[in-house]
Amino acid sequence: MREVLSDLLGWWRAGEPVGMATVVRTWRSSPRPPGATMLVGPDGTAVGSVSGGCVEGAVYELAREVVGTGAPVVQRYGVSDDDAFAVGLTCGGIIELLVEPVTPQSFPELDRVARAIERRDPVAVASVVEGPDERIGRRLIVWPASKEGDTVEGTLGSPRLDAAVTDDARGLLAAGRTDTLHYGPDGERRGEGLTVFVASYAPPARMLVFGAIDFAASVARIGGFLGYHVTVCDARPVFATSKRFPGADEVVVDWPHRYLQGEIDAGRVDERTVVCVLTHDPKFDVPVLQVALGHRFAYVGAMGSRRTHDDRLARLREAGVGEAELARLSSPIGLDLGARTPEETAVSIAAEIIAGRWGGGGARLTSTAGRIHHD
């Protein structure tokens, strides 16, 4: 919903009904992930995508139907079940959609949810996607636990179910994950018969780039393109300027290891954070890598030649970094793409981050068999 929020909110505030289709479950090589959203506006405008173009036409018509009936439906599209699927996904796989009408009456919490997303405050939207017909589309809005104000709005049908989903949704928010959860009709943890889709709108994952060099500018730009909140940090104020790094969300002048430790202590980084150390200067990169490798980040990479890498490992061992921690270090940084320019190197680094996130091996797809999309 994040990608189409401005259009959705505009129609909602005008009191206009909107058909909204959201990917809630996928199987095999689905073209869009859970949470991908498509809108059909009151004037017939289509915004967003749920399949990369494969089934948008069918979804468009279904979205218009639910606006007319006022009743949400769950629809599955795929490649193999002639009885269940009205249209096939030419790119393979199966997607399941929740298609629902959105109005100020059906989604009164949207304005508050939208403000939270715009402020980058965490919020989760839980919707029933499998169960009794009268519960399909029921919605629960969950914020992190707080001593002030309401932290839950709406209901899924029973206090016990609401409590179970609230607890699980907060766990997903903390991890920055969107997921589908299964319960019994009254929220039983080991039960069956009720499926709830939890769309987690957590703040964007962070990319911390240490070293205000020309390569850092390209890495910051591609980090922003991938959706990261990018910080460039360097101890040298003459180089660490916003003018030199327009692609970064923030530029910080501080010693890298001191800044990183401060962010860890303040809880402003998590397991989704990626760290790129580009200084290849031991007085900067050894201390910051010592801190980074002592913490669970999604990715820690360091730039440098083979000789620099060997020297860096020796210095880190002398500093007390263990072999298990060193095994998590991507150095020299990036995949072997033959990159030479800062821009090409940034693509190489981004490719390695993506491969690490999804379990890709970095091989050419034409030389592999089996699934394209990894779990």
Keywords, separated by commas or semicolons:
31% helix; 375 residues; 5-stranded antiparallel β-sheet; 6-stranded parallel β-sheet; 22% strand; alpha/beta
What does this structure look like?
Helix content is 31%, strand content 22%. The chain is built from ten helices and 16 strands. The radius of gyration is 23 Å and the shape is elongated.
State the gist of this model.
The chain is of the alpha/beta class.
Low-confidence stretches: 80-86
Number of helices: 10
Q: Name the average pLDDT.
A: 89
- Order of secondary-structure elements: HEEEHEEHEEEHEEEHEEHEHEHHEH
Given helix and strand content, the structural type is alpha/beta
Tell me, briefly, the overall form: elongated
**What is the straight-line distance between the termini?**
22 Å
Strands of the widest sheet, in order across it, are: 13-12-11-14-15-16
How can the largest sheet be summarized? Answer: 6 strands, parallel
- Return Rg in Å: 23 Å
Note the beta-strand portion.
15-25%
* Share of residues in helices: 25-40%
What is the tally of beta strands?
16
Itemize the secondary structure elements and their pairings.
Blueprint: H1 5-13, E1 18-27, E2 37-40, E3 46-48, H2 56-69, E4 73-77, E5 94-102, H3 110-118, E6 123-130, E7 139-142, E8 152-154, H4 159-175, E9 179-183, E10 194-201, E11 206-210, H5 214-225, E12 229-234, E13 250-253, H6 256-265, E14 274-277, H7 282-293, E15 299-302, H8 306-318, H9 323-326, E16 329-330, H10 342-358
Parallel strand pairs: 11-12, 11-14, 12-13, 14-15, 15-16
Antiparallel strand pairs: 1-2, 1-5, 2-3, 4-5, 6-7, 6-10, 7-8, 9-10
Helix pairs in contact: 5-10, 6-7
